[in-house]
Design a protein that fits this description.
seven-stranded parallel beta sheet, 7 helices, about 45% helix, alpha/beta, about 250 residues
Length: about 250
């Protein structure tokens, strides 16, 4: 009798927020999940325990700081050795905070470029051969601000613009074996720190959304699952999941 192997997905930043939502959706649909985290060890281990209780050895945690490229590559190799395969990579982890030009520093540049662009690029490099073998896919979480900048967040916007080009470039380079697509979320979750946005600012943001509401993490997770499993003739595309916000650009 032939052994049937579960597909494997690696999701960076999967301990919390949108990453955790994607991890839960993929796991429910039979994927084994490699849970990457940087500092959210408690949340990552909680998810690992939950998934393995439902289906033994279906989840494992992997730690790496995405600005540390040697750690990123090492983490990717550990994921590959876990199940000896990889079918989907979702570059979800991201840093987001304001950097007004007059206050921006090289430390800010390294942090935002590293987490949003440099780390994802070298992780793709590390696992590309495995994805080619499995005829798999890469999904990057971009941002609508990659095309229309957000005032005061120049380095973040530059990083996400690079992330969008990473998606398109690798879609060409890894074709035809690997499909590479992106998702550009709009207003899904507010930043972790309340200081970044007052209630008045939040309402002003919502007022500019044609659908007049925020989205939710399930919107992003469902799009990622579609791109990974059902979009066999889609590559090099970045899908905006933004309630129509990109229409205002």
């Amino acid at each position: 009798m032939k052994t049937v192997y579960s597909p494997v997905v690696l999701i960076t930043g999967s301990a919390r927020r949108i990453g955790a939502e994607m991890a839960q959706l993929f796991h429910r649909h039979g994927f084994d999940v490699a849970l990457h985290y940087n500092s959210s060890s408690h949340e990552a281990l909680t998810l690992e325990k939950k998934f393995n209780a439902a289906r033994p050895n279906s989840a494992k945690t992997f730690q790496a700081q995405l600005t540390d490229i040697s750690a990123v590559k090492n983490m990717g190799l550990k994921v590959l050795s876990w199940k000896n395969q990889l079918d989907v990579l979702i570059n979800n982890a991201s840093s987001f905070y304001p950097t007004p030009l007059e206050d921006a520093s090289e430390k800010h540049w390294d942090s935002l470029i590293g987490s949003n662009l440099k780390g994802p690029y070298f992780l793709c490099q590390t696992v590309a051969q495995a994805l080619q073998k499995s005829q798999g896919s890469i999904i990057t979480i971009a941002d609508i601000y990659a095309q229309t900048p957000l005032k005061g967040y120049s380095i973040y916007c530059i990083a996400k613009a690079g992330n969008a080009m990473l998606t398109k470039s690798l879609a060409k380079e890894l074709a035809p074996e690997v499909r590479v697509n992106g998702i550009a979320p709009g207003v899904i979750l507010w930043p972790n720190t309340d200081e970044q946005m007052t209630e008045k600012t939040k309402q002003q943001v919502i007022d500019r959304v044609p659908l007049k509401r925020t989205g939710n993490p399930e919107d992003i997770a469902n799009t990622a699952y579609f791109l990974a499993t059902s979009a066999s003739y889609i590559t090099g595309q970045i899908i905006s999941v933004d309630g129509g916000s990109s229409l205002n650009s």
